[in-house]
C-alpha cells in the first residue's frame, strides 16, 4: 500500500511539475519542442524523490514526526539558498536570486545557479510524501497485531499478548517480556485481537484464553480468573458464561480460598 502511494505521488507530482513549467511558454514555443526538456526535469525529480525516500522514512520510523521532517526539508531549502549565495559572492554577479525572475523554476533546467528554487520544489514533494505516507495506519502482515500509540506503531505477534486491561484513557498490555501502557480504547484493542484466542471477561479486561490457569467463583455469579503469570482478574457476570464455554469445562471451577 505504501509503495503504491509513493509511486502514485512520483508519477503525478513530477510530470505535473513539468507541465506547469511549460505553461508560461505556451504560444512562444510548441509543446513538442519543450516536451523533451520537461520530461528530463520530471525524470530528474523522480530520481531525487527516490533518493530522498529512505531518509524521510528513517525520520518517520524513528518517531520524530512532522516537526523533524519539516526541519529536514527546511534544511534542504536553506542549503540551496546558501549554495546560490556562495556562487553569487564568488562570481560577483547574481545567480538566480531575484524572485522577480523565476529563474530555474520557469526554465526548468538544472544548473549550478537557481539551486534554491529546485530545493523548494523538492521540499514541497517531501512534505507531500510525509503527509501521504502517514495518512493511514501502519499495515502489518496477517500474522501481526499493530497497536497505535500516538504517532508510534507497536507490532506484536498474534499470540504475544497475554492480557489487556483498561486504565482510564489507556490500556495496559501485558506480554511475556513487556508491559505496555498505550493510549487507546479497550474496544479498539479487542477488535485487533484474533478470536477465539482472546476473550473479554469484563468491560475493562481481555485475556488470552490459554493463559487462564484457575477460575474461582465469586458472589453474584462472577468469577475470578488466575492467569499464568499470577495475575488475578475479575470476570463479570455478563461475560462469565462465555468464559466457561471458552474453557470448555463449565463444571470444574476451583473453589475460592
Question: Can you describe this structure?
Answer:
With 257 residues, the chain is α+β, with helices and mostly antiparallel strands. 47% of the residues lie in helices and 20% in strands. It is built from seven helices and ten strands. The strands form three sheets. The protein has a five-stranded antiparallel β-sheet. The protein is elongated and about 90 Å long.
Short description:
The protein has seven helices and ten strands. With 257 residues, the protein is of the alpha+beta class.
Topology readout:
Elements: H1 2-22, H2 31-61, H3 65-91, H4 104-107, H5 115-133, E1 145-149, E2 152-156, E3 161-167, E4 170-175, E5 179-182, H6 186-192, E6 198-202, E7 205-208, E8 212-217, E9 223-227, E10 232-235, H7 237-247
Antiparallel strand pairs: 1-2, 3-4, 3-7, 4-5, 6-7, 8-9, 9-10
**C-alpha termini separation:** 54 Å
Structural class: alpha+beta
Q: How many separate helices?
A: 7
- Shape descriptor reads elongated
Strand content: 15-25%
The overall strand count is 10
Which key features would you list for this structure?
five-stranded antiparallel sheet; OB fold (Dihydrolipoamide Acetyltransferase, E2P); single chain; 7 helices; disordered C terminus; 257 residues; alpha+beta
Amino acid at each position: 500500500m505504501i509503495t503504491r502511494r509513493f509511486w502514485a505521488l512520483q508519477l503525478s507530482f513530477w510530470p505535473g511539475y513539468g507541465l506547469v513549467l511549460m505553461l508560461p511558454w505556451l504560444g512562444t514555443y510548441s509543446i513538442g519542442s519543450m516536451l523533451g526538456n520537461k520530461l528530463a526535469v520530471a525524470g530528474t525529480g523522480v530520481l531525487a524523490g527516490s533518493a530522498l525516500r529512505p531518509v524521510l522514512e528513517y525520520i518517520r520510523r524513528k518517531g520524530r514526526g512532522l516537526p523533524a521532517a519539516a526541519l529536514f526539508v527546511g534544511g534542504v531549502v536553506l542549503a540551496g539558498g546558501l549554495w546560490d549565495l556562495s556562487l553569487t559572492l564568488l562570481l560577483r554577479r547574481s545567480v538566480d536570486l531575484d524572485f522577480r525572475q523565476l529563474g530555474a523554476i520557469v526554465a526548468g533546467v538544472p544548473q549550478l545557479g537557481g539551486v534554491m528554487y529546485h530545493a523548494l520544489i523538492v521540499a514541497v514533494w517531501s512534505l507531500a510524501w510525509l503527509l501521504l505516507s502517514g495518512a493511514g495506519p501502519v499495515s502489518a502482515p496477517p500474522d501481526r497485531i499493530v497497536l497505535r500509540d500516538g504517532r508510534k506503531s507497536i507490532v506484536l505477534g498474534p499470540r504475544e499478548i497475554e492480557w489487556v486491561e483498561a486504565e482510564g484513557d489507556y490500556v495496559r498490555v501485558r506480554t511475556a517480556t513487556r508491559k505496555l501502557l498505550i493510549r487507546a480504547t479497550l474496544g479498539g484493542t479487542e477488535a485487533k485481537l484474533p478470536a477465539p484466542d482472546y476473550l473479554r471477561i469484563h468491560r475493562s479486561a481481555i485475556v488470552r484464553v490459554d493463559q487462564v490457569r484457575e477460575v474461582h467463583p465469586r458472589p453474584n455469579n462472577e468469577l475470578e480468573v488466575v492467569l499464568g503469570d499470577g495475575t488475578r482478574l475479575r470476570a463479570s457476570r455478563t461475560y462469565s458464561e462465555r468464559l466457561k464455554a471458552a474453557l470448555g469445562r463449565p463444571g470444574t471451577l476451583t473453589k475460592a480460598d
